[in-house]
Amino acid sequence: MSIALAHKPGTQFTTAVTAAFGAFAGLLVGTSQGSALIGIVLGAVALGALAWALMTFDLPERMARWAILAVVAALGLLIGGIAGLFVGLIFGWFFGWLIYWIGSGRYRMKLAPYLTPGQVLWHYTFRVICGAIFVFLITPILVVMPLSFNAEDFFTFTPEMLRFDPEGYSLKHYRDFFTNNEWQRSFKNSLIIAPIATVISVSLGTLAAIGLSQSHVPFRRAIMAILISPMIVPLIISATGMFFFYSQIGNWMEGTLGLNKTFVGYVKVVLAHAVLGIPFVIITVTATLVGFDRSLTRAAANMGADPVRTFFKVQMPLILPGVISGGLFAFITSFDEVVVVLFVGSASQKTLPWQMFTGLREQISPTILAVATILVAISIALLTTVELLRRRSERLRGMSPG
Prior knowledge:
Layout: H1 2-6, H2 11-33, H3 36-57, H4 61-103, H5 117-147, H6 159-162, H7 172-179, H8 181-212, H9 220-227, H10 229-232, H11 235-255, H12 261-289, H13 295-302, H14 307-336, H15 339-344, H16 352-363, H17 367-399
Helix pairs in contact: 2-3, 2-4, 3-4, 5-17, 7-17, 8-12, 8-14, 8-16, 11-12, 12-14, 13-14, 14-17
């Protein structure tokens, strides 16, 4: 606490910082009410005056924070109903905490005491920028998810939803997804194509990464650049090239081998998605191989193990987290991809993203919102698995000899 008191800022500093945050909050509220400029001005003035009063009269922190929470929540209820009440509770808690966090100097307690004011400012500015980017990225997802429970066939929040009226919410869009033949067929196609493409991507990508990790391989950098180029080249260009390339392969498979046209279509889409997934596998497996102890494979060879046995018994268990991580990324890439399948596939291979694209362009189906929410849940589960595997990989590399 002595460090905080030594750096306790003045009332003007606390007022200015709180007013800046108040202007941002006013921007959000004012935009929702149709007047962003008035919201900015009112937010800055109101919060700045509040901070000045609290610091000047030195009111007890606990009582003042509860009072701020109650007043801001009441204003939110008055302006926006039940939804405004929740927003008001969040804003009230945040600004009550912010004013005293700055005004008491607690913002410097966990920082080195020798930091200059400019360094302290950059420390928190950097975190605010990262937080703003995170909010910018996550907000579209947070908007889609509650809209998927809309009782009406609209892509906007209805008055009933804003009032948190149970009549405004329904699971009908989810029922439509699980009962509609078009949606189910596209979902099954995605479940067929994505796993097969993932297996191919993992097999080829892992072998390529292991080969390129050998120091004696010539032109390693050039080969690596070529292999990861599908991830760098604009997707529309890759899709156009795949269309011409795989159309010739499809004609040969149908004409020469006499294969069914639908089967050939699945083969083309699977191969195209495998090409898109291989770069992710190569990158993740290569990153895992950076900490791999080569002496383990040499020891296995000295004990009589052939290369295949060495790979499956020694190398594979240690790089498995990277292989699975790359496979998950390849699966997500295939499951969410729509541009390539539009060029390479046909109506028989219509995947879930393709059906969503059709729903936006032709039908304006609100079922898209339910499907998007399901895909978000699947992606979160897969990315959580990737993070757990990454941590396991770090632990394994820490256990191996240096």
